[in-house]
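Q: Structure tokens for this one, please.
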Amino acid sequence: MKALRIDHVGIVVKDLDQATATYARHFDLQVDPSRGGEIPALGIKNAFMPIGDSALEFIQPLTDQGPVAQFAKERGEGQYLLSIEVDDVAAAVEHLRGLGYRVGDPNNGIAFVSPKSSHGVNLQLIQRTAR
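A: Here is the predicted structure, written as tokens:
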């Protein structure tokens, strides 16, 4: 397993349009229109704002169910996850499990490391290139 870069940082917000407007105004970032949108299966809508070789992902819960809504209810707005691009997500999962980490099964090139295994960070592993 090789970690390649920070892919993006996920931030839970109450109002997606307001949050992206704030970051556009204060940091001159622009929403990437080719990414994000409503994801009914997850009960969220999101938007990505590239910054260097990474991005900020703003995530607004659309329902009161699911992990993003639970996070917002318990903690309010704030950093939700750190996404690290890896060269091979299946190998990364196998490697981390071998070290005793709690890691979910890969699904569509993504796996989550339990915050209990990553010093309180909701860590997402993502594989951007096909294997």
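A few notes: Residues 8 and 55 are 5 Å apart (CA to CA). The mean pLDDT is 95.
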